[in-house]
Specification:
By secondary structure, this protein is of the alpha+beta class. Helix content is 43%, strand content 26%.
């Protein structure tokens, strides 16, 4: 039996920090006078006793938590008074990750995450903080990718591919989420840093200097632009650090992935546990026929802001050569059901309405806030840019959305906000199909199609304004009674 790294004691101690409320309450009644303060100091033995109790609980939790791998199972036992034993058969694993955070390397520690398709949604089934010298226990127990075989595939992501992937899938929204997490979780530290380095004053100074060089753009507008660019840069740097050094190996039964510049990760995926393959694109990569290949499998890509990347950047030619080697039988097929030409309005109506609504909003904003006319004019332009971009996305979505089912495989192409998805999977992974028709759809022969796939969290593909007759013909074999 093995024990976790002693660093885990600190983690267990944090669970009992609520016990510090007792010395805090005791001290609250002893600060009226200077003599009371000295009296309180004489009673520090009680505070030390509480701290020792917390450390003792942490040590006991660590001491009575043991793990090992034997008879093809991961075995974990913990509990001081009531003992709990957990067995996780290796054959049921869908993904296992060994992570080496930078700050843990000097002390010889690493995280192990083991996941199956069971358990709580997006929750790791078994998480261990192990010693580096014990990692061989997991490496030796897991099947290795067979090399030198015809089915062996090896891909090492180049620097430019990782940079291009980070450039494509970084966003100001993601950066804002990371900064918000740092702000709320680090709280006082973040505010002290901002005050110490006078970041607010420096931002105002930079905005005024840039605005003086860019005639017609007010400092407030420049500030907004700098903040948005900074948030995007945070997301970009995070993606580069997370997916840098990407390397993949596969032998059609296992997929092995290594990635990370700061926190190195070693990931083993079981091919037969993969729910579906997801080829992702944005508008630019769609026009350039470049893909990012992701997979949906329990235990991979569960972390906040992470993408379950299998291959970061591939051209259409590389996709056709790579897919049969990684996932035999899965391939991109031509659409048999797609939106009819007269359904174009259903795709562009939302950005069209949004664009029309900007003009009256700007008119009344100028009327009620005349002192901010320069900022309002700038915001008007900034609002029209994403609206026009979304309009272009919807036009491309109208031309490319659809589905096909051939030989027990389904290929669904759709757009979710700004990302184009091509989902390829076995029809056995389809959980539910819904055909939704408004009253006017019955007159025009259209429908909305919602396809739900097997996944840890609900994954729904929404196809808009499809041709009802071709959808019926495509899904007839897989819908009860052959009717939608």
């Amino acid at each position: 039996m093995f024990r976790e790294h002693p660093l885990r004691i600190l983690r267990y101690c944090t669970k009992y920090l609520w016990l510090l409320i007792f010395p805090i309450i005791r001290g609250a009644y002893h600060f009226a006078t200077k003599e009371d303060v000295f009296a309180w100091l004489k009673g520090t033995w009680f505070d030390l006793l509480i701290l020792l109790a917390i450390a003792g609980f942490g040590f006991l939790m660590w001491f009575f938590r043991e793990y090992t791998i034997e008879n093809g199972q991961i075995y974990v036992q913990d509990g001081i008074i009531v003992t709990r034993r957990r067995y996780l058969p290796l054959r049921n694993l869908s993904a296992i990750t060994i992570e080496y955070p930078l700050w843990m390397r000097p002390i010889g520690a690493a995280y192990v995450y083991a996941d199956t398709a069971a358990g709580l949604l997006q929750a790791t089934d078994i998480k261990l903080l192990i010693r580096r010298r014990d990692e061989a226990l997991f490496y030796n127990a897991l099947p290795h990718v067979r090399q030198g075989k015809r089915t062996h595939y090896h891909h090492k992501g180049g620097v430019w591919r990782v940079l291009l992937f980070s450039l494509i899938f970084s966003s100001g929204t993601s950066g804002a989420v990371y900064f918000a997490l740092f702000w709320f979780q680090s709280g006082r530290i973040a505010r002290d840093l901002i005050e110490q380095f006078r970041l607010t004053e420096r931002l105002n100074t930079v905005s005024e200097e840039v605005a003086s060089r860019l005639m017609g753009i007010p400092p407030a507008a420049v500030t907004i632009g700098i903040v948005i660019l900074s948030m995007w840069l945070v997301s970009f740097i995070r993606n580069v650090l997370r997916y840098g050094g990407f390397e993949l190996q596969s032998d059609q039964s296992m997929v092995s992935i290594r990635s990370g510049l700061v926190n190195r990760r070693y990931i083993q995926l079981v091919n037969r546990k993969i729910n579906f393959v997801d080829l992702r694109q944005n508008l630019l990569t769609k026009l350039c026929r470049i893909f990012s290949l992701a997979v949906n499998i329990p235990g991979y890509g569960n972390q906040q802001g992470s993408i379950p990347v299998c291959l970061p950047i591939l051209t259409s030619g590389e996709i056709s050569r790579t897919m049969p080697m990684l996932f035999p039988g899965l391939r991109i097929t031509h659409r048999t059901a797609k939106p009819p030409w007269h359904s174009w309005y259903g795709y562009i109506c939302m950005p069209l309405y949004a664009g029309l609504a900007v003009y009256p909003a700007v008119y009344y904003a100028r009327k009620f806030f005349p002192g901010f006319s320069d900022v309002i004019d700038f915001l008007q332009i900034m609002l029209y840019i994403p609206i026009v971009w979304k309009m272009a996305i919807q036009v491309v979505s109208f031309l490319t959305s659809g589905l096909s089912i051939t030989e027990g495989r389904i290929c669904v192409r759709y757009c979710n906000w700004t990302t184009f998805h091509t989902i390829i999977a076995d029809t056995d992974t389809i959980v539910k199909v819904r055909i939704h028709r408004h009253l006017w759809h019955r007159w025009t022969g259209k429908c909305h199609v919602l396809i739900y796939f097997q996944s840890e969290v609900m994954r729904r593909c929404h196809l808009w304004c499809m041709d009802y007759r071709t959808v019926q013909e495509t899904l007839a074999e897989y819908v009860a009674g052959g009717q939608c």
